[in-house]
Amino acid sequence: MNKILLIIRREYLTRVRKRSFIVMTILGPILMAAIFVIPIYFATMQDEKRVINVVDETGLFISKFSNTDNYNFIPQYTDLETAKKTLKQTEGYALLYIPRTELNVPTQAMIYSDKQPSLNLKNYISGVMNRELEKQKLAAEIRNQIRMINPGYNAVADTAADNLMSETILKNIKTDVNILTYTIEEGGAEKKSFTEINMIVGMVASIMIYMFIFMFGSQLMRGVIEEKTNRIVEVIVSSVKPFQLMLGKIIGVALVGLTQFLLWVVFTTILVGAFQQTFPDKFKAPAAQQQFVTGQQMQPQAIADETTANLKVETGNETANQIFEAIASINFPVMIVSFIFFFIGGYLLYGALFAAIGSAVDNEADTQQFMLPVTVPLILAIVMMQYVINNPEGPLSWWLSMIPFTSPVIMMIRIPFGVPYWELALSAVLLIAGFLATTWLAAKIYRTGILMYGKKVNYAELWKWIRYKG
Amino acid sequence: MAILTVNNVSKHFAAQTALNKVSIEVPPQSIFGLLGPNGAGKTTLIRIINQITGPDEGEVLLENQKLKPDHVYSIGYLPEERGLYKKMAVGEQALYLAQLKGMSHHDALEKLKLWFRKFEIESWWGKKVEELSKGMQQKVQFIVTVVHEPKLLIFDEPFSGFDPINVNLLKDEILELRRKGATVIFSTHNMASVEELCDNIALINKANKILDGSVKEIKKRNRTNTFELHYRDFEGDLRSVLNEKFTLVSDSRDDGLHTAVVKLPMDAGPNDLLAGMMPYTTITSLSEIIPSMNDIFINTVNSFNGGDPNDLLNN
To answer: Is A361 found in the same domain as A236?
Structure first.
């Protein structure tokens, strides 16, 4: 039996039998499920209602603040000083004060509160006031226009302009523009693209690769240190070449990682399936509505004719529908093949370096100084993620997705946005070249390092090891 | 014909020379002592023989063939820095190491069972290594070194970590292995065991081989023509009755038993000493002081280093 296979087998079996592996395999999917469930749980939790007292000297807005889930607006018909006192006595959350201005076009409001009021509240208030002011200005403008056509027009007596501004009309002209993006493919066919979904899929994939490299890279490093401190390494290298031992360890740990990953996928699928069985209504696909909604998109003016209630329902369905469409639009074969490739390639590239670090030190505490240059490119890749999402085609994104040290993380973000095959191939070739180079370099450090005890190693020393022959 | 021949092997590490044109020959079915102070280069030489590192110059021949990867199956190596995977079961680990030495799973299992029975440690098979004492671990380590029945065995400080009973058990095993045809290279600082076990030795100091040959021959070569004699019925100064060319090294008189150590010039023999003394004293015994390997080791190393050979004589 080939000796590398023996080493791989030992590394694999001892690791998957460890209690920590079994615990992680079970906890992983539960944690992942929790990531989805907990935000939903918190979102559905009711905040306690907060009381906002309103003193409106203009009288324009007082009736416009409708109570929300989180805030109750209570009009106060007193002066500011009294209202402030009342606020203290009634233990209200905040006092909104809109002062009268000369031109009767108020542009500011004050919030008095003993705590910093939330951004939410500020946004809500300014939204209400803006809308009301726009409406007032629009009505005034319409009156002016009518007066120009008809000089005898008595604006005060006419309520037509105000009627124009009635709630129903305002609601009907209110739109929520939803931009659909299409990518034109080479044949001229148009394909709908979904930036947000692409973003999430890419981010999840690249964060998983990042975590995998760190988790299993440091596991590999600890394995090398263990062999050194146990003093078994000299026994083993009298039977196998240090390079074989290193390679066997790297591959063995990679297989452990893949096993863990596959088990997570299986368990998560089972968990989600179980969840689906228990709460079937949350997963209803809006398949029946699909055609209808798509039809509507063709003629946007038709939407205006619909009643408000109807419109609301369809908007909800459309969002769900888009998610399904978006997921269907991702090129999954490319995505999965690339994920597995960059997953393994990235690990192999960094794994060799982690093994070399492990060989150079006597215990884990000494790894710090060598860890820095290895972790910096990985952390850089994660930091650059946001930038790459915003500019998946930019030159920096392009280069980061080519350099082997960052490409496993960055390329996974770019792929859902569509990457030409030649770029994927180039990045893959560079990654393979990269891990061959790091493995070659690591092997030189490793074969000297594993037999070196009780010596504080620095970079100059490592450089010397690299230059040793045979 | 030698089983192992090391020809002018040199090895340099950056600014430091670990081996400088060292040559040794190990005859088959013998026990060869590789001696030298700490840091002399013994471990480097052993690692070269095991193909863990390669020589910068020179060559190593195993049965007249230049070392090749397959030769690791013919060598069993017990390093000075040795250990086992602490979290792994003893039997599983022994199987793994035996298979790395080229044994099939079936053969390895069979042979290991035999050895475990011989050492009466069958009950440890399923235990984790960390549950064993240090001496117990050493026994397992010895077994995995010899289980693949190599032609050449290399033991680096094999007795460290063993109690005297187990040291004897191990010595017997080493002699038994030689009897069955194995050749043993034996590196140690324990000179008593060298005298007891070794047929030949090489002494390495500061990267150079400074002494080699058979133990008997080396001891003969290092004779100093010094004799110890017991005498009685003489209370005067011994110097006054000795030939003036003889050197009285020591003379002690306890409880009527007098002991003197006399060094003779090269042209004189014990008969000359006896003839000179007999008229004055009654001699009860006379014996030649043969230098121990310990003395030879210290003297040779010190004179090579330029120090006074007598400095550490009685350490």
So the answer is: yes
